[in-house]
Every structure is written in C-alpha cells, then in structure tokens.
Specification:
Blueprint (H helix, E strand, L loop, with lengths): L6 E2 L4 E2 L4 E2 L4 E2 L4 E2 L4 E2 L4 E2 L2 E4 L4 E2 L4 E4 L12 E4 L4 E2 L4 E3 L8 E4 L4 E2 L4 E2 L4 E2 L4 E2 L4 E2 L4 E2 L4 E2 L4 E2 L4 E2 L4 E2 L4 E2 L7 E4 L4 E5 L1 H6 L4 H16 L4 H11 L7 H8 L8
Parallel strand pairs: 1-4, 2-5, 3-6, 4-7, 5-8, 6-9, 7-10, 8-11, 9-12, 10-13, 11-14, 12-15, 13-16, 14-17, 15-18, 16-19, 17-20, 18-21, 19-22, 20-23, 21-24, 22-25, 24-26
Antiparallel strand pairs: 26-27
Helix pairs in contact: 3-4
Length: 256
Amino acid sequence: MIHPTAIVEEGARLATDVEIGAYSLIGPDVEIGAGCRIGPHVVITGRTRLGRNNRVFQFACIGEEPQDKKFGGESSALEIGDNNTIRESVTINRGTAEGGGVTRIGDDNWIMAYCHIAHDCQVGSHIVMANGATLAGHVVVGDHVIFAGYSGAHQFCRIGDHAFLGMYGGVSQDVPAYVMVSGQPPRPRGINSEGLKRRGFSGEQVRNIREAYRLIYRSGKSREEALAELDLRLPDQPELAIMIASARASARGLLR
C-alpha cells in the first residue's frame, strides 16, 4: 500500500490499510488513520493527525510550519477529522503558540485545488472551498459554509454556519450564520436560502431567518438592539440561535 519511492520516516504512525503514492513524504510525527489515501508527491509533516477515510491528492502540502514571522519553531499541531477530500496543491499549516497551538479541520469537507488554510484556523464540517479559496490565520469557520472560487477571509474573521461567500469575495469582517456575501467589494446580499432548503430547513424556518437578517441589516437598529429583539423570538424560532450567537461573538464587526 506504500509506493516504493515514497518516504515514510521512522516514528510516523499509519493504519495498516493506508495508501501512500509515489514520491510522497510522511514526517516522523504524522498520524494517519484507517482508510486514508495519500496521492503522489504529497508532503505531510509536523505534528499532524489525519482521521479516517481522508483522500489527499497530488502536490498537497499538509502540516508545514506556519507562515508567521513570529513563529520560532515551537511545537504546534494540525488536526484533520474524517472523510475529507483535499485536492491538488492545497496547503494547510499547523498552528502557533500564540494562536493556541493547533489548526483544526472537521469532517466531510471538500477542499478544492490550490486552497490555503493558514495557521490556527478552526474549520468546521461539511464545508466546501472551491478552487483558490484562502483563509488567513486565526479564522473561525462554522459548519456547512461554502466558499466560491478565490474567495477568502482576513485573519481573525469569523464565518458562521451555512454562510456563503461568492466568487472573489474576500471579507475583512465577520459574516453571521446563514448570510450570503457577494460582489466586489463583498457585501451581504441576503441569506443562503437555497443552501438551507437543500439541508432540510422548512419554508417557515427560512422565512424566520430572512426576517432576522432584515432586522440585523435593514432595520436601522444597532447590532445590540437587533439581537435583543431576536432573543425574544428564540422560544418559537430556535433556528435563530446560531445566527444570534455568531453575530454576538463578532469582534471585528459584522460585514455590511
């Protein structure tokens, strides 16, 4: 299952059925779980752990040192969950001591060619990053987020669950759950209603989320006033909880 030209350094821990392609390099502190398939010319290094059934395509570089001038060689890690697809030439860096020490990626993500996930990012599950999408350091991404081609997020931004970033949309402020962003410069354009319907949200739930969006973005109320009003709706509209939480957690301010 390991090509004779691949290099697996002493100390690496691989499940018995892991496949390693030609000319790939697996570092001594790497752990790769059952069912993983690593293509040719892949580099996986550092204190990196991959869970089960991940597929990594050729020329990807996983777990390399963070691109941070303050990094001094301290021990840091990258943790990747299960069932992720990591396509050609993707780069994912491990964390920094200043940022908590660990970059994390969840489960069932689809990360297309030439994407970059920087140090200390905390990425959820079921996300799609189309070709060339980029996350700077310390970005937090929720579940079911879609990044269209060449979109991305500035360092320390937070992208809430079910959000959608349109093509070339590079955001420098936070995007709450459910919100769709597009244009240049990128601006909120409504909610990701099609995505929500595909994921089983009812028509009533989508309407409730749309009304919450209007209250936050179009009512003229301050963020605190809008969120306080949405708090009152929670008993009957629990789907608003993640939208409220993501908006309230914003430290960089909401993208408007």
